[in-house]
TrEMBL record:
Phylogenetic lineage: Bacteria, Pseudomonadati, Pseudomonadota, Betaproteobacteria, Burkholderiales
Protein name: Enterochelin esterase-like enzyme
UniProt superkingdom: Bacteria
Amino acid sequence: MTTGIVKSKLDVIEDTLPCKAMVTTLLVLLPGAYDTPDDFVRNGFVSALRERNIAADIVIADMHIAYYTAELMLERLHQDIVLPARQKGYAHIWLIGISLGGYGSLLYARQHATEVDGLFLMAPFLGNRSLLAEIGKLCLSEWQPGEVSAQDGDRRLWAWLKGYSEQDQTGLPLLYIGYGTEDRFAGSNRTLARVLPENQVMTTDGGHEWLPWQRLWIDFLDRKILPRCD
């Protein structure tokens, strides 16, 4: 199992809407640690979107684990995908992340909240076990992050996520989460899901694998959250 090569510019797969409507929504798909953009295509993510006539273009980033370990994930996502998308005229940007890609989506949204309209996280990795156990002893609304050091990125992320438990969520992107009930991250995913409205949480049978993620993706698309072609 390789970690991939860090490049000066991200490799991507793009899929643009075939209908004549003016497209203002871009979906940015971020894979898991050892997954590739081709995995999204092979598992029907693009075809499911097109079958539903959804008015959105897609960019699937080859954001593998090496970008995270090199601490280049945020820079490459911002410089190679989000800023060029804004320059092309996309008014709405959604981040769609699986596993580590869900974690990366949250890291980006915390740092660049005004650039992200929505997030859909499938079985996201949500940080180190000791912190998750600390939060899980209470509920997110009651948990207090305390003093957060500059080096404690996971605690800083959860301090930001705590905002979803508050009445005033001004400045926070719309957040949807889905996971398999037997997923290894189900416990931490439930901790986050409990502070979200029920209609923003999806579950299915299964563990940390593509079949449950396919079902969650179809569930998300069928809720008609995203715009359709006329």
